[in-house]
Amino acid sequence: MTERLMASTERSLRIQADDNLKSMIVGTVMRKIKSRTWKKQRYFRLQEDCMTIWYKSKKAGNAHSTFSVGDVEAVREGHQSEVLLSIADEFPPDRCFTLVFRGRRGNLDLVAESAEEAQSWIKGIRKLIDNLENMGQREKLDQWICDWFKKADKNRDGRMNFKEVRDLLKMMNVDMNEHHALRLFTMADKSQSGTLEDDEFVLFYKMLTQREDVLRVFQEYSSDGQKLMLQDLKDFLREEQLHEDEVQQYALNLIERYEPSDTAKMLQAMTFDGFLMYLSSSEGSIFNPTMVELYQDMTQPLCHYFISSSHNTYLLEDQIRGHSSVEGYIRALKRGCRCVEVDCWDGPNGEPIVYHGHTLTSKIFFKDVVTVLSNYAFKASQYPVILSIENHCSVEQQKVMAQHLTQILGDKLLKSTLDGKIPIGLPSPEDLKGKILLKGKKIGGLEDSMNGVVDDPLTGEVSDEEETAEIDDDHHRNDSIRHRGKKSKQRLSKELSDCVVYCKSVHFSSFKHSRIHSKFYEISSFTESKARKHIREAGAEFVLHNARQLSRVYPSGLRTDSSNFNPQDMWNAGCQIVALNFQTAGVEMDLNDGLFSQNGHCGYVLKPAFMRNIDKRFDPENPQNRDGYNPLSLSIQVISGQQLPKVNIKEGSIVDPLVRVEIHGVQLDQAKQETRYIDNNGFNPVWYDTLQFTVHAPELALVRFVVEDYDKTSKNDFVGQFTLPFTCIQQGYRHIHLLSKDGTSIPPSSLFVHIRITKLT
């Protein structure tokens, strides 16, 4: 077998030597559970490639399903999902486990026949996930080649005839004329046997994936056309990639890390393979790797950060009939979300429940949400989580809520100021690490509760979100939520009030009123339309307001389908808590993921300096009027695409890709441009199209790359996207690793671009 296929096979054999994996390859009958009443037996087994899990019904018939181990994010043991909790009385926890998939795909809940079998699968899948995560780039490529070989070798004879190769090209999104395909096939068929085996297939694959675009760059800097000597590589890094610091050391590190040839390493040189490996790595990526890590100052007041925030976190679908689930909280928290929402109502037997009031959405217990918060709040980030309470409960059930919060969260719940003294400003994310903050109504002020002044339980509006009011403002009617009361007068329990420290919910009157009367610990919520109105009428005032205290913006009550508004408009005004429906994929969540993909995915991003300074004015409608105005020109040459995924399952359908680049930022910066489309080539399309943009507020801008399948008769199909902050862009020749609609990676799909950012003179 070729070196590549051998390495991959060796790895498979090494893995297969593991006892747990051996029994997974043999296979097991387990129950697949969808609900208390839906429990069906399925036969599961791991395939020989140690990458795919195959399962089918025990009944006769050929229908079966498969999924890739790469799609599994985690394995949970025991009754760790709502479905398994609902059957806890029927099956013991040591036989139960849950496979959690990436993106928005539903969990797979399983019950094994014995605790030993469950452990075999739990440990085995975890080992396979670890193995995948620790694979180097070369190994991933080997695996990729092996996968294609296996897919194409239909009759399993270890060799491929020309018909199998033609079918393979279709699978790979390549529309190649027969003559050219036959020419490559014949060139690769060194043994002249009429079939490709071993080395011959790797050669065919290499010819197929030959990167002429990268070769052109390589040869431009190579003194002899064969390799980059150290000086050549340094010239490339300085002139193209714009590296300035310790270039010699950086070049040597790249050779050490990415050069596969030991001979070249001894010469301190880089071959084409090493060069391609570097450009495909995280260091050759468009996203500056130093900004993927935690790099910002985390000691500023809380109101100086954008905070990743979710709306109606308990919903997995729409706002009217959707399923309420603690899974919504787990998913949001694992994505780095730092502000989650609960809608609380009186429930049966004195237990408060969470659901979207006056609708048909299902209900969950408040205590279950608090338990999930305790278990998952700090898995993705150590920085504080804000629990935003929309409270519709009676005083009795509010006391129960306070009890659950205190007992279940313990020390994680912040119940007093950090040093026990009356503070003069908000603490920082650093100060609040590992803490959960309650946002809600409070009796009196922070100073009163610190001084021991306690009023009688307050009578006031406890509810935070008045969605009906907005619907009436817009002269709309929506039967399912029309009858919600606009202002519900309700008494507030002292116990729940005492749990609110730095995030007291207050009604917003005006910026002038806030400037004179507001306290730093007060926070107002705005519907998207109210926030837009304030931005239009008093953008600079809104920015100043947000330099002093927190603001939260949430979707209109009209968005019953759980669609999202554009969060960028709100970030432009410095609003920190911009709450989105995390369950709904689309451009809005791409922007949210893009903004928070920096700074260690910790859920906090420091606002630009001009938005934090209360002595400076910044108007998002007129960014050119600010101090330090420094517009930039962004030039993007879209060179090529690599192995774009098929979007149309129809037999023989091949993508006609185009690339659109969108700038999302202040109004003046909003822009989009696209390349031409390439006919029938999703495998290795080449454009060399240059797109130019002017960016007036780069500190606030996000850049979104979208690949679409062009269709002249209907809407283009989405192929993949990648969104990042303008400030995190690395210049020069860069790869962009595309993401799916769900924000999960789709290797090895990528774009190759050249980026230049210059000052506008």
Structural summary, described in words:
Residues 496-612 form the PI-PLC Y-box domain. One of its GO terms (cellular component) is plasma membrane. It is found in: Cytoplasm; Endoplasmic reticulum; Membrane; Nucleus. It is a peripheral membrane protein. Pfam families: C2, EF-hand_like, PH, PI-PLC-X, PI-PLC-Y. There is one protein chain. With 761 residues, the chain is an alpha+beta fold. Helices cover 32% and strands 24% of the residues. It is built from 26 helices and 32 strands. The strands form 7 sheets. Strands 15-14-13-16-17-20-21-22-23-12-24 form an 11-stranded mixed beta sheet. A 7-stranded antiparallel beta sheet has the order 4-3-2-1-7-6-5. The chain has a 4-stranded antiparallel beta sheet with strand order 28-25-32-31, with no helix packed on it. Strand 2 (39-46) and strand 3 (52-57) form a beta hairpin. It is globular. Residues 1-6 and 459-486 have low confidence and may be disordered.
